[in-house]
Each structure stands twice: as C-alpha cells, then as structure tokens.
Amino acid sequence: MVANAEWLNRAQREEFERTLTVSGAGASLLQTSINRVVQLLTLRTLGLQVVLDVKPGSGNAAYINQRTAGTTGGIWVADTTDGATAEETGTYGQTSFPFRTLLKRGTVTRALVAKGRSYGDVLGIEMEGAAEDYADQTEFGLISGDVAQNSNQINGLLTMINATSGQVVAQTTGSGGDAFTMAKLDATIDKVKGSGNRSDLIILASQLGGRKINAALQAQQRFNDMIEIPAGFRVKSYDGIPIITSTRMPDALTWSGSSITGLTGGGTTAIAVINRRFMWIEELTALSVMPLARTTSQNEAFDMFRDFTLVFANTKGAALLAGITTT
Questions:
Q1: How would DSSP label each residue in 115-138?
Q2: What pTM was estimated for this model as a whole?
Q3: 7-55, pLDDT tens digit by residue?
Q4: Would strands 226-228 and 234-238 be described as parallel, antiparallel, or unpaired?
C-alpha cells in the first residue's frame, strides 16, 4: 500500500508505514490474489500423433493384405520358347493390427468441487490435465508399445520396425553406439519405400536426436529450412522432410550392434524415417470422455477412452537409424 501525500503529512505517513511492518499486521491487511490458470508441470512434445493420419476402423482389427515379390522379375527367353516357362507369381499374406483400448479414469470429490467453486470448474480443470496425461500415454504406445511386454498394448513403431528385416540401419556395430552422421541418415531415408516423394515422409527423433541432426547440419554448413506439416505447424526440415520431435522417443535404448534389445538401460537413441502413406492410426472409437454414474455422494468420476491401433501397412514403409550414442 502506498500512503498518499495529499492526505497524510510526513509524520503520519511514517507512523502508518511502521504500523504495516508490525508482525502480522501487513499480511492481515492484504488479500491474496490467485491466478486462475492452472500450470501443468510437464514438459512434453508429442509430435507423432499429430502428424500421422487417423482413419476409421471396424471389426476387431485392421487387416492388411501384403504381397511378397517373386524371386525374379522374369527370365530372358528366345522367341521360340514357350511362355509357360517364364510363369512366376508372388506370394500373398495377411497381417492384422488388433484394436486396443487406452483408458484413464479421473475422480474429483464433491467437497473439492464445492470448495473450489469460487476459483473455477474443478472437474473441468482435472479433465484438461487428464487429457494431456492421456495424450502422453498415447504417444508412448505409438512409439514404444510392445505386445510381448503387455498383451493389452498396441505394438509401437520401434517394436515393429526393429522386427522387420533390413529396415534397421546401424550407426555402428558396436553395442555402445557411435556419433550420429548425416550419411547414415541418408541411408535410412533410402530404405523407405516412396522416399523419392519427400512430402510423404517424416523424420521422428527425440529432442536429443533433433539436436544431433541440427548440429550435424551446422557442422557441414547446411541449413535446415522450416516447413509446414499437415497439423498446421511450421517445423525444421532436412532435405524437404519435416523433423518431428517427441519426448516419448527413448534416449536410453539398449543396442546390440544390429538391433534394439531394450527400451531402457542403454545409452543410445534412434531416429525413425516414416512414409505416412504406409503407417497411420486407425481407430474403432474416437477419443471420448464419459461421466460415470454416481454410486456415492462423495465424488464425481469420468472415464477417458479410445479404441485404436497403429497400422504398419507396408514393412518397407519405414526405417530406423539406431545405435546413436547419446553422449
């Protein structure tokens, strides 16, 4: 409080100021003002779920028919050779990606709702925070989900690409990993089907991986331009490919020298190159929030749920650059 000189002389003003400094007096005369914005104490960048297409699904899984090419594309023959000699067909198979449910339940007590009414909608505030937590767990599933570890999960891109022969590029064959190089990133891009059309591709990295790409570009005096991705954001790019970062891309991967053997306990990271035409999210039930019937007067509860899966339709549609040291 500022004493106004117009109605207090100097002696009165000094006496008034001394009064406010008496223990407890100043605090008693002040009214606490609380900012109405609840700050979410998280640091999350959830880029993958933003850039992948979402398609409607049906049934118990997304089913994809795949063809494996024949051993040859034909044989060279003389003009007198019977055409049946050159007969050859590819082999066909079907793979499925079961829909799984990600569920989150939130509860707010009746008393808290009543006490916080003068502040705001406490239940709505909790739902907002729960939505961010839910998005974080969705990102984890899309990247690191592993049915072998939890049968209720979906398989994430690390699990599926790592299990695909020929789609993992080794930064080094040493289990300790090695420094990132642009040449290896170029080799990873070349592994992806349809990589000639850069507009279909994305580069997915952890924040540390993104910094390594940026540092390598600067060392080579090359500059990564900004590009607009389908979600409407402008992000950095390399060779026309958007660089998307996610805090759910692990920086503690265990690397055997040829494949990722664990998501924790190691000192390496990976960078994924994905063709969005061959990898997408398919959902049976869109993200929904449902208030639950009250069985007690003491609280209000809600469920947040979604039935979805990650579809890796073409095993040549994505590749991993792995074994990148984090040091």
A1: HTTTT--HHHHHHHHHHHHHHHHH
A2: 0.83
A3: 566 766 666 666 555 555 556 656 566 666 767 666 778 889 999 999 9
A4: antiparallel
